[in-house]
Amino acid sequence: MHRCGMLPDDYGALGLDEASGRKLLAAAVQRRREDLADVRGLRREVLERVAAGTHAEPLRVARREEARDGFVKYLFELHDDARIETVRIPVPCEAEGVDASAYQGKEKKYIVCVSSQAGCALACAFCATGELGFTRNLAAHEIVGQVLAVRKEADRPVRGVVFMGMGEPFLNYVAVLKAARILCHPSGGSIDGRAITISTAGIVPAIRRYTREGHKFRLAVSLTHAVAEKRAALMPIERVHPIGDLVAAIHAHARARRQRVLVEYVLLGDVNDSPGDARALAGLFDAALVKIDLIDVNGATGGFHRASREARSAFLDVLGSARIPFAIRYSGGQDVAAGCGQLAAGRSPLVRLSSRA
């Protein structure tokens, strides 16, 4: 067992009450204690039992790269040589030439973009992680460990976490939700649950489960095309969980939570950026239940290019006319391949020509 991957109620398996569990969680996560021998308020025999039944295993930073705009990409090597990447995002970004309006909030802080799997099985055409294939799910402690490693050397507080790194979070559902609960626990990461966002490519049964369970973390869903057959060419998950079912699950979640779902849409030049594409997108959703998160495609994966300024403007005009709220996400860290869709576990992504169907 791993200390930073346990909640207070998990310590019941070691014969401890919740109060003791809170103390141990705080020691492991808040203070990064690897030796629990002198945690105050617990008997020595209790601490010895915990030490025998758990172990601390910080992630090893194999490489860190800082971009000109202040984004930092971390490459971690895990115990079995699996490799993952994590991104530290500055908010607001104050680097020269970067539009600070791309960020919200006045407090100087960091958000950490974490990975939930080593590799990914979904093979989205525009994502470098999909080129790697799937290696394995991450354990909760490995997800929490990414945030702890970033926080340990950060010069400002970590106030948010986004599950938008490598892998599909809802194909590692139990570990991801456990990690999120640890990160927002007052004895754990102490991050406001409303500042944690879990992004999925559209695993409909998991979205419905997530809605039933009433989690407080924000939901984001990657869509990228509103026409089913065209989305399937870009995101093969469409063939398993069709867009009609996905939209119904998104609407149901938004109504249950009384909060808009973020619908992520990667703009691909001459593929999904026409006014007709925008009308199809607007026609899918109840404008009161979603917010469109527009992301320019990054990197060489799939052979795509960014939409022109004129095409993007026409696309946004359609959304505005349909009263669909939207935001343009600033995708930083481009010079170190830390942007959305660029994480490749330290490898150079392959250039694969995509279908333009």
Describe this structure in words.
This protein has a ten-stranded mixed beta sheet with strand order 1-2-3-4-7-8-9-10-11-12, covered by helices on one side. A two-stranded antiparallel ribbon has the order 5-6. The protein is globular, with a radius of gyration of 21 Å. With 357 residues, the protein is of the alpha/beta class. Helix 4 (140-152) packs parallel to helix 5 (173-184). The chain has helices at residues 18-30, 44-53, 128-132, 140-152, 173-184, 204-213, 228-234, 243-257, 275-284, 309-321; strands at residues 60-66, 72-77, 83-91, 109-113, 117-119, 134-137, 158-163, 196-200, 218-222, 261-267, 290-296, 326-328.
Biggest sheet descriptor? 10 strands, mixed
Tell me, what's the shape? Answer: globular
> Would you list the SSEs in sequence order as H and E?
HHEEEEEHEHEHEHEHHEHEHE
Give me the oligomer status: single chain
The total count of helices amounts to 10
Instruction: Determine the strand fraction and express it as a percent band.
Output: 15-25%
Portion of residues within helices? 25-40%
Total count of strands: 12
Radius of gyration: 21 Å
Which strand order does the major sheet show? 1-2-3-4-7-8-9-10-11-12
Residue ranges: pLDDT <50 for 5 or more in a row?
94-106, 349-357
Q: SS-based structural class?
A: alpha/beta
Mean pLDDT: 88
Q: What is the distance, rounded to the nearest whole angstrom, between the alpha carbons of the first and last residues?
A: 48 Å
